[in-house]
Amino acid sequence: MTLQEIDAAKEAALAEIAAAKDEAGVEAARVKFLGRNGSLPAMMKGLRDVAPADKPAFGQALNALRAAVSAALEERKAAVAAQSGPRDSFDFSLPGNWRGTGAIHPVSEVIEETTRIFARLGFTVADGPDIETEFNNFDALNTAKHHPSRDERDTFWLGPELLLRTQTSPVQIRAMLAKKPPVRIINPGRCYRRDTTDATHAANFHQIEGLYVDVVPVSLADLKSTLAHFAREMMGPSVQVRFRPHFFPFTEPSVEVDFSCHVCKGKGCAVCKQSGWIEVMGAGIVDTRVFGKVGYDPDCYGYAFGMGVERIAMIKHGVTDLRTLYANDLRYLREFL
Length: 337
Hints:
Blueprint: H1 3-18, H2 23-34, H3 39-45, H4 55-84, H5 106-119, E1 124-125, E2 131-133, H6 134-137, E3 162-164, H7 169-178, E4 183-192, E5 204-214, H8 220-235, E6 241-248, E7 251-260, E8 277-286, H9 288-293, E9 301-308, H10 309-317, H11 330-333
Parallel strand pairs: 1-4
Antiparallel strand pairs: 2-3, 4-5, 5-9, 6-7, 7-8, 8-9
């Protein structure tokens, strides 16, 4: 290999690149001269046979050859593209490709409808992280140290004081720590528990919880009227609401709330297990010890409630198996159009 041969190769390469008529021709020239088995890599390998004293001059010549060929390829490629017109031009004469109408998922539908109902009552939406502290998830909610919900068999612990939240109630604690009364929020979100997945349970599910705290009296009657209004708005004007005494660590008194079965209208069926009622949520008057945990005056008044989104979606649409909501079967989801 001589310097004259390098100059001759340069002239031949530039001439061939300039003669390329389309992108395929430009690509063929690139492969021929710069590809793995191209002429320039072969010449670079031949550099090892050049005398040591001549290697600097040969190296500079080969580098100049590479630069000239690369620049010529880029220039010719741009010129060919300009001649051929826009690559992605749209042909408006083509027939349309109908892909069908989408539908909102039942779980999202319940969250959005619940948000609209409570927004009309003055509630705003609050949010919080899925990874919570032990204080927000248990301690501030008056959950005893020996409570079974703290056990590793029930809760996804990530460390000594961190866990995947088991309920959306920690958002209420965050809201009260950040703001003085009045507080009126709902907080939809994902929750995580070590439940075995079956027709009515899942390890990952959604809840919507609400909180109303004020310095003026807020009673159980206010809570009952609020939830009765929600029931009528969500399930229809004929729905009946029943309140049963219960226990929750963070409310006192506490109640469980049932809706009359919308399928059988309270007469008894498979959906309501022949009872005529379907358990929907838990609620109650906020325990004064919770106010103490967040620095509120114990003389404040407030109520809280929480409901499972999937349960309401199942009731509303007559779904018998929770798992079908997450099967991603488009044939099933199209039923909610």
